Every structure is written in structure tokens, then in C-alpha cells.
Amino acid sequence: MRRLHLLLPVLLLALVSLLPGAALAASSGQALEIYYTANTNGEYDPCPS
Amino acid sequence: MGGLARRAGFIESKRTEAEKGVVRLFVAGPFELAAPDGGKVPAMRAPGAVARAHAAMRYDAMLLTPADLALVGDSAPKGLARWTTAPMQTKGEILARSGLRIAFVRFPMPTGPDGRPTEQQTREVVAEGFHLRGEADVVIGISPWGMSAEQAFLGHFSGSAQPFDVLLGGGAGPGHGGKMAAGGFTAWLRPYVQGKAVHVIRLENIPKRQRQSQVKREVDVRFDVVSLDDKISADRVVDTLLAPARASN
User: Which residues contact B156 (CB under 8 A, 6 or more apart)?
Assistant: First the structure.
């Protein structure tokens, strides 16, 4: 019985971590960095025909 | 040519230098090999070597134009071959990285008057963007349309739902260091001439951004430009690959 009391909080924590909200909280704050190269040229025409 | 080896060194350093909670993608846009105006470029001296150098950089996404393909030739090196398909068609795909689903839409080469996209091409791009928005956390467009057409395209969406979180531009018209467009919804970037720098867009809090998809997002976006100067070490493998190009100088 005493062992069950010790295990109960651990089991509850494990269950909570499986909830979708917890998964979202864990993934919030994720950042995306895009490193980009390409080629451009010329002058910009502000009044294109 | 030295810039390309330094670019490879920079990309490799960022690829191996992990930052917790950050997904990094390396993208090469239009006209990496050819010039947008059909003029002479260094890659013409040894296109095979330059193509192998680009293949060695293992981009996460790339857009090759018909002009780029003409330089690569029929036998594109492994690593570039997958990007040589259908430059005249809108093509979208989703990459999964560390729990994020990132959609890329490669814009087709414009076939309208004055080198601008047709209405049909614009409709296809918009439809593909909205389609992938339902499946991805972030939607990124890669465009060879040029500055004027890209600006007009983004202008259509001011004050209304926009399919693209990011528009990576290229082609005719000058580059800029990055700006918010489409009513503050889309981060728009056009690199400087001939890939002499690596441009960076950082989007913060991706899941939060997705839930607030109609809100202006300036606070969550950061632009940066990294000059490929002597402070950045050249990648030895790419430097060796480029030896034939240097020899033909």
C-alpha cells in the first residue's frame, strides 16, 4: 500500500504528459531558421507596364 | 568561386551546430547557376564542377530554373537530380523536421507577357499554398518571378488570408534584406546579387503562429544577412570540387 502511494504521483505525471495540451506546450516556442541563397539582378521599376 | 566554398563551410557549421528548439533549413532559390538576365556568370566556366558543389551542400529545398538546368546539362549530379523536375509547373511538398511540418511550394517559371506570371499560374500557386496550409505548420514559397511580380502577388493578400508565411524570391530586380509584406503576414526575402551572402529568416513560436494565422506577425520574424567574407572558413570538399573552375580562370 505504501509503495502504491509512492507510485501514484509518478503515474499521474506520466498520464498528464500524454495529454494533447501537454504535447503542444512542449512544442511551443519552437523556431524555424531558413538559410537562403538565390540570384537577383537589375533595377526595380516602380511603375511596371 | 571562393564564395561558394565559404557558403558550404557556413552551411555545414550551422547544420552541425544544434540549437535546442530550433529547426534549420537550407534552401537554394532560382538562378544559383545561371544569371537571371541570361548574362555570363562564373558558373559557365565549369558548370559541372559548380553543379557538383551545389549538390554537395545537400539543400533541404531547391528551385532550378530552365536556365540553371541548361548549365547543369542532362547528367545532373546526385543531389541536384531531384530538383530538376517540372520547372514549368507549380510543385508543392512537405518536409518533416523535429515535429514541424514545413511545406514548400516551388513557383513555376512565369510564361505571361513581359516575363510575368499568367493569371492561371497565380491561381495554381495560391491554390497549392492554401492546400498545403491545411497540412503544414509553415508554408514557404520559392519564386523565380522577379521583384515586381512578387510584390504584386503579395499585394493581392493585404488584409485577407494569405497562403504563404514566407516568400523566398529571386530573379529580375534587386535584392533586399527581408521585409514583411501582404499586410504583415508574409516574410518576404530577396537575396543580393550572385549569392554573395546567406540570408536568414527566423520564425519564432511556430505552433503559436499557426493558431494565430490571421494576426500580423512582425514580432515573430527576424531577418539577418551573413556576408561570406574571409572570417568564414571554406569547406574543403567543396573547395576541391571547385578546383576546375578556378583553373579555367
Answer: none
| Contact state of A44 with B148 under an 8 Å Cβ cutoff | yes
| Strands (E) located in chain A | 31-37, 40-41
From B191, B198, B204, residue closest to A40, measured CB to CB:
B191
Test B202 with A29 for CB contact under 8 angstroms: no
CA A15 remoteness from chain centre: 20
Using CB atoms, pick whichever of A32, A38, A45 lies closest to residue B30: A38
Helix axes B47-56, B2-16, angle to 10 degrees: 10
pTM for the model = 0.84
Would the pLDDT of A24 be above 70?
Answer: no
Q: Is A21 part of the contact surface with chain B (CB cutoff 8 Å)?
A: no
Closest Cβ–Cβ partner in B36, B194, B207 for A30: B207
What contacts B83, CB < 8 A, 6 or more positions away?
Answer: B59, B62, B63, B64
Looking at beta carbons, which residues of chain A come within 8 Å of B114?
A: 48-49
Least confident interval from A5-19, B67-81, B149-163, B215-229: A5-19
Mean pLDDT of B103-115: 93
DSSP assignment letter at B107: P
| B142 has a pLDDT exceeding 80 | yes
The x, y and z cell numbers of residue B43, run together, are 558558373
- Across the interface, whether the CB atoms of A38 and B195 are under 8 A apart is answered yes
The pLDDT of residue B114: 85
